[in-house]
Amino acid sequence: MSTSHIDDWKAERLALNDLVMQYAGLTTKRFFSLDGQAYRPGALPASTKELLGLVASLVLRCDDCITYHIIQCHEAGVSSAELEEALSIGLVVGGSITIPHLRRALRAWDELQGAPSTE
Amino acid sequence: MSTSHIDDWKAERLALNDLVMQYAGLTTKRFFSLDGQAYRPGALPASTKELLGLVASLVLRCDDCITYHIIQCHEAGVSSAELEEALSIGLVVGGSITIPHLRRALRAWDELQGAPSTE
Amino acid sequence: MSTSHIDDWKAERLALNDLVMQYAGLTTKRFFSLDGQAYRPGALPASTKELLGLVASLVLRCDDCITYHIIQCHEAGVSSAELEEALSIGLVVGGSITIPHLRRALRAWDELQGAPSTE
Amino acid sequence: MSTSHIDDWKAERLALNDLVMQYAGLTTKRFFSLDGQAYRPGALPASTKELLGLVASLVLRCDDCITYHIIQCHEAGVSSAELEEALSIGLVVGGSITIPHLRRALRAWDELQGAPSTE
Amino acid sequence: MSTSHIDDWKAERLALNDLVMQYAGLTTKRFFSLDGQAYRPGALPASTKELLGLVASLVLRCDDCITYHIIQCHEAGVSSAELEEALSIGLVVGGSITIPHLRRALRAWDELQGAPSTE
Amino acid sequence: MSTSHIDDWKAERLALNDLVMQYAGLTTKRFFSLDGQAYRPGALPASTKELLGLVASLVLRCDDCITYHIIQCHEAGVSSAELEEALSIGLVVGGSITIPHLRRALRAWDELQGAPSTE
Q1: What's the CA gap between C93 and F43, in Å, rounded?
Q2: Are C109 and C83 in contact (CB under 8 A)?
Q3: Which residues of F are less than 8 Å from B95 in CB distance?
């Protein structure tokens, strides 16, 4: 039931985001702000937006981005069946080259299933 | 209100799919079958699945794939506001390099808005 | 000495940008604004920034983006020798898969050499 | 039985390669030479090397590169069954995003089947 | 003569594949089956198919996929000279961005050269 | 003020480059030579060429390549403001998918700021 792998990941992400902000000029700062804004609920609910971010990250094969959206999907109340269907679309679109990332996506998701959704 | 650009695109796609099937071995045939299956409604509705396919296609920057999913989103009853929010996530994830594809996605969508959803 | 290919390209780009703005929500609008801001001269001159945008576009293999930055490099006073050296870095980093885009980049550049830099 | 589409493609490629050489510095010239050298028969026969170039081009989704290697495979005596198996590996590795390129690859291959291998 | 790095890699891959199958729906299960089928000998021998998978993985820059196909090439009896020629095509097509993956590909290959081919 | 992470990275890179050269055929050897040549000062100074290599590596999302060019930029006398502006162009072109790489790029850069430029 441990989420320590994910907790470690979150801690490193926060520390490095602080470092980015120390160096960041206006363009970088505004991009980070925009990145947060894009996932706010609107015509589409937050859960759908997080699934969109997850599948985009899977086909572009970025493990950090996948981990981030896996956590966000969990917080937004996405079910395992919904998550798996979304990932399977990414698999078909992106091909077998996405499989190693799919494995790690489900490892992170599986870790979160043992943890209460409380942050 | 013309959809002739989209109609031409559909006709060429069908003709070339016929050609693929003339050459296709078992692996290719099964892949094409799997590609259709991935978008059937399940835990997620067809409209969400088409938006997932659309955003995956946008960040991977494939105009043909984008056109296909734009048509499928239209058939599945996606609204312009929902479509635009999904595309904006693809834009933020995939960056300015997706902009030319975003332009053509909205041109195809705009053509479809003038046409009754009847095919 | 004709630049009609580039002029046609510019006209279509403007028309489609207008269409994007008709559909655009806040995220998309802010992204387009940010995209313009990133290339304004700062610690690096505009010419260097345009070369950075050009090489990024070459290795990501987006013809529209390449054409845009080729025009911007021309306007910023980049020389043919500077342009070629930048493209050769993109060629080595991105490999032979970039060659078709390199060809079209130089076709656009060659067209611009016959035209006064006046827009 | 016409190969005019392929003939047009070859003519434009040659014209643009000439233009590249007019601008090319030493790095670009040496890269083009190296690109030719990589496909010469050695421990692997030319036909296998062309199939490797073709599948690499398919998963990277470059139509010009695919057309080039389709022609080279034809010249190297690759059979339709061998070509289709190679393409099906590219399809599985690269996913459905490669399908539009697979269609155009087989259109070019089909054109060549009607033509004697004489160039 | 140790292959412990590769043995560890194989063990983790198997454990995560088990996890994928626990969550997998029909689309994912069929994709995994198709992935195995694509490399079975047919018009092309297994060794050529594994080289195709390897070069596709190199230009798409997936270390896990590269390690997998390096092992498969070893089992299929590919020689070091054949492997190196195939990798050099991937290097030229995919550019210097593939070099870190090429280094790790040859590290895995070198480990396998000290081990009898017995699994 | 430790640069041990970067020192470790350099040591592994050198060891693996030696291994590559043990296996390398003529194509691979010539590619490595060309890779070095592309960054030599010419019409563009070394600092600009390293920034071009850095931004190309960022949008293609290769951590090893980014680390290499971060070190080279430091050696070439690039300032933190210049580096950040170049990275921000990569961020806008390549999108949020580049953010994890941007974080690690600035971590490497930050390590180098504590070290005298003496290698």
Answers
A1: 19
A2: yes
A3: 59, 91-98
pLDDT one-digit tens code per residue, B50-65: 999 999 999 999 999 9
Using 50, 70 and 90 to split pLDDT, how confident is the model at A114?
A: confident
Q: Which residue among F52, F60, F89 sits closest to C89, beta carbon to beta carbon?
A: F52
Which distant-in-sequence residues (6+ apart) come within 8 Å of F118 by Cβ? none
ipTM for the predicted complex: 0.94
Beta carbons of B102 and B85 less than 8 angstroms apart: no
Separation CA A16–CA E12 (nearest Å): 28
**In angstroms, rounded to a whole number, what is the distance separating the alpha carbons of residues D63 and F101?**
29
- Report the predicted TM-score, pTM, of the whole model to 2 decimal places: 0.96
Q: Is F38 on the interface with D (CB under 8 A)?
A: yes
Q: List, for residues F64-116, the tens digit of each pLDDT value.
A: 999 999 999 999 999 999 999 999 999 999 999 999 999 999 999 999 998 65
At position C118, the amino acid (one-letter code) is T
Q: Is there a contact between D59 and D93 (Cβ–Cβ < 8 Å)? A: yes
User: In which residue are the tokens 């490999």 written?
Assistant: C95
d(CA B35, CA E20): 19
CB atoms within 10 A of CB F117: 11
Any idea what DSSP says for residue A33?
Answer: H
pLDDT computed for residue B48 by the predictor: 98
How distant is the alpha carbon of residue B74 from its chain centre?
A: 9
- Nearest C-alpha neighbor of A6 from the set A86, A69, A78: A69
Residue B71 DSSP label: H
Residue closest to A35 by CA, chosen among C57, C31, B81:
C31
Judge whether A92 is closer than 8 Å to chain D, CB to CB.
yes
Is the CB of residue C98 less than 8 Å away from at least one CB of chain E?
yes
**Number of neighbours of residue C35 by Cβ within 10 angstroms:** 18
Helices B63-75 & B4-23 angle (0-180, nearest 10): 110
